[in-house]
Design a protein that fits this description.
single chain; Serine Threonine Protein Phosphatase 5, Tetratricopeptide repeat; four-stranded antiparallel β-sheet; three-stranded mixed β-sheet; about 50% helix; rod-shaped
């Protein structure tokens, strides 16, 4: 018994149409042979009961387990009876080729006659490309089976019924349609339009007309370091605080000196009411001076750290804030002002 390779039916039809041959066979195990024989006998009984669709499925399963010319001929005849003309024609062509190689002339003649008769009533589909070559890497599939580009425009046999056509290409929106293939003989043409580009498809970068030998435009110098700016600000405020501390301290000293004239010479703590008020004010200004001195010292140190750790840049000189502290003190009061440009 001649062995045959198996392939999906839709692919097999296209393979025969493109002039290809079925793959080489392989040896079956005894269990596979037994199962194939049981399926074959069951298919024969179903044919006698006119259960054609079920019989075709059994013949197909038997042939896949143990490919044989007799099973192939029965399966092709079953497909013809259920109206699958393209599948039947492809299998009869295959059976004729295999029978001829196996020197089974009677079976080869039967298969050849049936194939020639079926060829006269095939249903074919032509894939007409609207603009051939307009899109690279174009892919066309019919019932999920890829159709080689050389066959585009050729009448390809298909079983009557609904045929789904899918067209795709990288960077383009896919396109698909369904075509109802009539009972043959019939030739159906399907126009394949030019695909539209996908919205997310990358576009070509614009070509620069700038002379490559020209140097790139100079970049703007980076702005002055904000670290240095804040350092100068902190230092200026610190100096102002220290100056204020000096004014407040002098004010406390002056008030204390004035209180001595209102206190007993032999007992500095024995003062009139006015003298006591002056000493209280002196103590208050002394406290303010101490606080201002502490704050000013801290800010001055912070400003120095920020300035010393800031990145050096020639452009920072113009951005350096200018600070000037003005202090005015007298026996009855004082003032501190901070002037500058930031």
């Amino acid at each position: 018994m001649t062995r045959l390779g198996t392939a999906p039916r839709s692919v097999l039809v296209l393979a025969i149409a493109f002039g290809l041959h079925a793959p080489a066979a392989w040896a079956q195990t005894p269990s596979e042979k037994a199962a194939a024989e049981a399926l074959f006998q069951e298919a024969v009984d179903m044919m006698a009961q006119n259960r054609l669709e079920d019989a075709c499925a059994k013949y197909q399963a038997s042939h896949e387990l143990d490919p044989a010319i007799g099973t192939l001929l029965r399966l092709a005849d079953c497909y013809d009876r259920v109206g699958k003309s393209a599948s039947a024609w492809a299998l009869f062509v295959e059976a004729e080729t295999v029978a001829t190689r196996a020197q089974q002339s009677d079976r080869a003649e039967i298969a050849g006659t049936r194939a020639a008769e079926l060829k006269q009533r095939l249903s074919t589909v032509r894939l007409q490309i609207e603009e051939p070559g307009a899109i690279e890497s174009l892919k066309i599939a019919v019932n999920k089976a890829d159709i080689p580009e050389p066959s585009w425009g050729t009448a390809l046999p298909f079983d009557p019924g609904t045929v789904q056509i899918q067209v795709s290409a990288p960077g383009y929106e896919p396109w698909s349609t369904e075509v109802e293939v009539p009972v043959g003989p019939a030739d159906t043409s399907v126009r394949i339009p030019v695909l539209e580009r996908s919205p997310e498809a990358p576009t070509a970068a614009p070509v620069s007309l700038t002379n490559a030998s020209e140097p790139p435009p100079a970049q703007e110098a980076p702005p002055a370091s904000s670290r240095a700016t804040w350092g100068y600000v902190a230092g200026g405020v610190g100096l102002a605080s220290l100056a204020a501390a000096g004014v407040l301290g002098y004010r406390a000293y002056a008030l204390n000196q004035d209180s001595l004239n209102l206190c007993a010479a032999d007992d500095p703590n024995a003062c009139t009411t006015a003298g006591k008020d002056l000493r209280d004010d002196a103590a208050k200004y002394g406290t303010y001076a101490t606080i201002a001195s502490g704050v000013g010292g801290g800010l001055l140190i912070t400003g120095l750290v920020l300035v010393l750790t800031a990145p050096s840049s020639a452009t920072q000189e113009s951005a350096t804030p200018r600070v000037r502290v003005l202090a005015d003190a007298g026996p009855r009061g004082g003032s501190v002002s901070l002037q500058g440009a930031f």
